[in-house]
Design a protein that fits this description.
Oligomer: single chain
Number of strands: 2
Order of helices and strands: HHEE
Number of helices: 2
Mean pLDDT: 86
Helix content: 55-70%
């Protein structure tokens, strides 16, 4: 699951949510789908955190990295 892109993970998560919302799924399958969804949520969260960290720094003209503060 870690090799999926953020978009692929999110798409699979949306499909699972749709299945679970329909309610036409046996309990055992619903539990399996819920567990898969929780893994996808974790993958998405990790990818978002990595992206936030990557854009949280900006490069000054001299090449030094500085923390980016949106309030500036």
């Amino acid at each position: 699951m870690d090799d999926l892109s953020f978009e692929e993970s999110l798409e699979q998560l949306e499909e699972i949510v749709s299945k679970l919302e329909n309610g036409d799924i046996p309990l055992d399958d619903a539990i399996d789908e819920f567990n898969k969804a929780m893994q996808l949520v974790k993958v998405c969260d990790e990818k978002l955190t990595a992206a936030e960290e990557a854009i949280a720094k900006i490069v000054e003209e001299n090449g030094d990295l500085v923390e980016f503060n949106i309030n500036e």
